[in-house]
Amino acid sequence: MIEIIPKNKQAQGQFNGGEIIENKPIGFPQDGGETQPYSNIFYWAYAQANKESTIGLHPHKGFEIITFVLKGSIRHYDTLLTKWIDLQEGDIQVIKSGSGVSHSEALNKDAAIFQIWFDPNLDQSLYKKAEYQDYKKEEFNLEGKTKKLIGNNATIKIDSEGVEVYELYLKNEEYKIQNKENEIYSLYILNGEIEINNKKTNIDDFIIISEKEEILITAKTATKIFCIKSKKNLSYPSYFTKYLK
Description:
mainly beta; 9-stranded antiparallel beta sheet; 4% helix
């Protein structure tokens, strides 16, 4: 099954009177939107800054919280390193929040980020010491049509089961993905004009492919797609399944 969720059907949010605006392919339960958490993807927000703006210090526990800088630059502060750190377009920040950490982020004008929360089995992660790591864009190489970010043979390794993250770059061509029995593909169209199994998509569409089938992506123009492959059925109960479903 291929489910296409356009931007206007995603959850919406904002900070600081609209200085930062968000569309959320997967929002918190109270955010609305059409998509609930699934697999071990608990939360996914696309945040854009209309002006320089800071989200104040706030706590996290358990989840692996990953920020992908898509445009511009941001700054980050956390209670592990106790200093502000600059991140540029293409950089990635990984917080394994474990038993607890607080952080703050400041988006510079016109910056855009994904912030995605993965569930690494909170029954275990809540008892681990929090960890934080930055990765610079130079650590990720384009190999053919893909830039591997997280998972097998990628620079970043996380504890959340079976997660692979990569960017897919296409131009006036077809590309096939073979979705297996226990896999879910989650795609976000960052730019370009494409069809997926002959279904037209638009920029900012969020796409979930959850059945065993061949996926045919047809790029009409230069295209960038953000891709997550995860397990349909985990070996542990996710936080959403255990406490919120």
